[in-house]
Structures are given as structure tokens and as C-alpha cells.
């Protein structure tokens, strides 16, 4: 099993989760993060750290966000690894509660 970064991270990109990950399985895109499913050890340390509740265990991922399981796997293969906390995106506060952000995902 793996944890999955969902839609809530798009245009926010808080990196509190990265700081607690013992296996460095987070990867950074232009406006979101993803988790590499083959590297995640299912420790659950990242989930409570996310201020926008964007991280779910695979079996708790909402039905309407199942596409993120595949997106995390795909994008983790091409985006660079991130291992240190950074500032969130400037507009993070404005986008924190917005739904339907998939169209804003930058590859």
C-alpha cells in the first residue's frame, strides 16, 4: 500500500510532509507534490503534517480522486526528488479550499 497526494495539494504545495518522510519518497512538480508508490513504506507520518489534508492512504483515497493514484506513480518517475521543506506557493492560502483543481496541475 502507498500514500497518495491528492488534488488539494495543487497550487498550494506545502512541504511539511517532506520533512518527516523517512524514505524521501516525495517528488516536486511546478505546483504540487507526488509520492512515489514503490518507495513509500506506508508509515503514515506525512498524512497528519499536511495543512490542506491532501494526503490519503491508498485505500482511503476518495472515489472522485482515484486518478491521483496513477498520477502520483507517473509523475514521481519524471519529477525531481524533494527532501527538505520549502515555503508553500505564494497563492497557497487562496487555493487551499478550492475544489476541482486537476485542470490546474502543471506537469
TrEMBL record:
The lineage of its organism: Bacteria, Pseudomonadati, Pseudomonadota, Gammaproteobacteria, OMG group. Its cofactor is [4Fe-4S] cluster; [3Fe-4S] cluster. GO terms for molecular function: 3 iron, 4 sulfur cluster binding; 4 iron, 4 sulfur cluster binding; electron transfer activity; metal ion binding. It comes from the Bacteria. This is Ferredoxin. It comes from OM182 bacterium. The keyword Iron applies. Pfam families: DUF3470, Fer4. Residues 1-30, 31-60 form the 4Fe-4S ferredoxin-type domain. PROSITE patterns: 4FE4S_FER_1, 4FE4S_FER_2.
Amino acid at each position: 500500500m502507498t500514500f497518495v497526494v491528492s488534488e488539494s495539494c495543487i497550487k498550494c504545495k506545502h512541504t511539511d510532509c517532506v520533512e518527516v518522510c523517512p524514505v524521501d519518497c516525495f517528488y516536486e512538480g511546478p505546483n504540487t507534490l507526488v509520492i512515489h508508490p514503490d518507495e513509500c513504506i506506508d508509515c503514515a507520518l506525512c498524512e497528519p503534517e499536511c495543512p490542506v489534508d491532501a494526503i490519503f492512504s491508498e485505500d482511503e483515497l476518495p472515489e472522485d480522486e482515484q486518478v491521483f493514484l496513477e498520477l502520483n506513480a507517473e509523475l514521481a518517475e519524471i519529477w525531481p526528488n524533494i527532501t527538505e521543506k520549502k515555503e508553500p506557493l505564494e497563492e497557497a492560502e487562496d487555493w487551499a479550499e478550492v475544489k476541482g483543481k486537476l485542470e490546474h496541475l502543471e506537469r
